[in-house]
Amino acid sequence: MLEVVNLSKHFGGVRAVDELDFRVEAGEIFGLIGPNGSGKSTTVNLIAGIFSPTGGTIVFDGEDITEAPPHVTLHAGIARTFQNIRLFNNMTVWENLWVAQNSAEQKRTGNPLARWMGGSRRAAAAVEEYLDFSNLAHKRDELAGNLAFGEQRRLEVARALAAQPKFLLLDEPAAGMNLEEVKELDERLRVLRDRGVTILLVEHVMELVMEVTDRIAVLNFGRKIAEGTPSEVQQNQAVKDAYLGAGEGGADA
Amino acid sequence: MDDHVITVLNNIGGFSFIALSAYLLLLSGEISFGQQAFYGIGAYASGMMTAMFGLSFWLALPLAMIVSGLAAAAVGGLTLRLRGLYFAIATLAFAETVRLILVATTWQVEVDGEPVGPNGSEGLGNIRWGFDNEYEPVDFLWMIYGTLGIVLLLFFLMERSRLGSIIRTIGADRLLAETQGIAVTRYKILVAGLAGALAAIGGAFYAHIQTTVYPENFDVMLGVHSLAYGLIGGLGTAVGPILGVLLDVGFLEAVEWIQGYRMIVFGGLVAVLLIFMPRGILDERRIHRLRTALRGRRQARTHGAAGA
Question: What is the pTM assigned to this prediction?
Answer without folding.
Answer: 0.88
